[in-house]
Design goal:
The chain is α/β, with parallel strands linked by helices. It has 26 helices and ten strands.
Length: 508
């Protein structure tokens, strides 16, 4: 008899998916290489031991873990085995007058069942129990059933009893496995497959089949299959004509199973706008994993709501390694800070990247040692875009807020002045007060050129005119109104600086 056995914990507990049931003459049993592992029943039918009497229990089999049914095989079956083996020889010999093909098949099944019982002991796993059950049922449904010894018949009936819902469910699994298209989708750990510890419910089998029949590689990942929400959502993405690209990038992403599961659970509505954004730009998906898989960012990142999380990865998913390190430095605070910026309206990638790079500790206000204002950072970046070079934060013994490195103003100190987007409502309600405050700030900035107070003189004042047109319209004036008020104040009070040597006008 050819039986494929797997060794685990020094016990043969499984016979594999495809047990080869073929006739083995009596003498061959003693030649098996595993003869030292024969059960007492196996040694009895091989003539290797003496039994006390026909009632002695030589073997007890439990028909799978957690199944109450058990079969006890006594010494009386050893002699019965010889009789059936002899009948096998007669009905299977094509030259014999008693040759009967159908009887031959079933007597062989019975002989092999005896042989298998001679090799195993204890608790059968579900695969072995299923195979034993099927063989027993075939014999009982065959023409030889009525001629069976009553003890053999009783044992076969025991073997053929239902194994319970958990075990029955595995039959469906093996039907699927026979499909060569999906056999390659089996979990890589065959010991898990053989034990079927994770495939004992119809729900789990259905989930596995949905992935396997679509040739989704994760059908071979037990950990992923254990999460119904994530597994079902991945199938939905696969089946969606408009979101298939999202499935593709998820399938190709080299990330941990836990990360993929977290993504699919976080974004739980395929009809929401974020999935369409993922489909439009799959790099956003990759960016999500960049932040989620970083241990120093994971906790703060996960605390974001779905929409905020999407906004963050859209803006900063492609930031440089320098920016990424700045975000990691104080993850929760820096992520929250970056989300406070208004949406960029031009040079999106560059502006968002520099926003990330211009975080403490690498970029901070010299006197306070803390963040610059949001609108100041955007003004610094606009200077870089308009005139080239990159800005660095000034030190305490240097003039201005920034020193330019490269570009038109290489080595020069700059100090910006502008309006915050969040201040627009205040300008609308108390325009005169805000304008007077702005003029005073202009005076202080120009004072850094003429009266630097212990520091080198400032090279240039940067005036950012962003939002001035909107404010002018809000108060019922023409769009140029606020801009002209500012220019007029400079012309009247600081005429010596009213030129490009001392002023840089941004968004004018």
């Amino acid at each position: 008899m050819t039986v494929q056995l797997y060794l685990k914990s020094n016990r043969y507990i499984c016979i594999g998916v495809d047990i080869a049931l073929t006739l083995a003459p009596i003498g061959n049993l003693s030649k098996l290489k595993h003869i030292t592992r024969l059960t007492k029943f196996g040694r009895a039918i091989a003539g290797k031991t003496i039994v006390e009497g026909p009632g002695e229990v030589l073997l007890r089999l439990e028909l799978a873990q957690g199944v109450i049914s058990a079969v006890e095989i006594t010494a009386g079956l050893a002699s019965i085995y010889y009789n059936y083996a002899k009948q096998v020889e007669e009905v299977c010999d094509v030259t014999s007058s008693q040759y009967d093909q159908e009887k031959c098949i079933n007597y062989r099944r019975l002989a092999d069942l005896f042989m298998y019982n001679g090799l195993v002991n204890g608790v059968l796993d579900v695969v072995a129990a299923r195979k034993v059950k099927n063989v027993a049922k075939k014999i009982l449904d065959s023409p030889i059933a009525n001629a069976l010894d009553i003890d053999v018949y009783t044992i076969l009936r025991k073997f053929a009893e239902p194994l319970g819902d958990a075990i029955e469910a595995t039959n469906t699994f093996w039907v699927y496995v026979r499909d060569p298209k999906i056999r390659s989708c089996l979990p890589k750990d065959l010991s898990e497959v053989v034990q079927l510890r994770y495939f004992q419910t119809e729900e789990m089998l259905t989930r596995w089949r949905q992935l396997a029949t679509r040739e989704i590689p994760l059908s071979g990942n037990i950990k992923f299959l254990q999460d119904p929400v994530a597994a079902n959502r991945l199938v939905e993405l696969f089946d969606s004509p408009t979101l298939r690209s999202v499935y593709t990038v998820l399938s190709d992403t080299k990330t941990r199973t836990e990360s993929l599961t977290a993504f699919l659970r976080k974004f739980d509505d395929l009809g929401a706008t974020y999935y369409q954004k993922f489909a439009d730009d799959t790099n956003v998906v990759k960016s999500w994993f960049r932040y989620f898989d970083e241990p120093l960012l994971n906790l703060a990142f996960l605390q974001l709501e779905s929409e905020a999380m999407l906004k963050f990865v859209e803006r900063y998913g492609k930031c440089s390694e320098e920016g990424f390190q700045m975000i990691k430095y104080n993850a929760k605070v820096h992520i929250a800070r970056l989300l406070e910026y208004p949406d960029a309206t031009h040079h999106l990638d560059y502006l968002n990247n520099r926003r990330a790079e211009m975080l403490p500790p690498g970029f901070k206000e010299a006197d306070k040692g803390d963040f610059f204002n949001l609108h100041e950072i955007d003004t610094f970046i606009d200077v870089e875009i308009a005139y080239g070079g990159k800005s660095r934060a000034s030190l305490k013994n240097e003039a201005g807020d920034i020193i330019m490195l490269g570009g038109n103003f290489n080595g020069q100190s700059l100090d910006p002045l502008g309006l915050a987007y969040s201040a627009i409502p205040s300008w609308n309600y108390r325009f005169t007060k805000e304008l007077n405050s702005f003029k005073k700030s202009l005076s202080r900035h120009f004072g850094k050129i003429s009266n630097p107070k212990g520091r080198p003189p400032l090279n240039k004042v940067v005036i950012d005119y962003k939002f001035m047109d909107e404010i002018s319209v809000l108060i019922g004036e023409n769009p140029n109104y606020l801009r002209e008020e500012v220019d007029q104040y400079i012309l009247l009070n600081f005429p010596q600086y009213n030129n490009s040597n001392f002023i840089i006008k941004i968004n004018y």
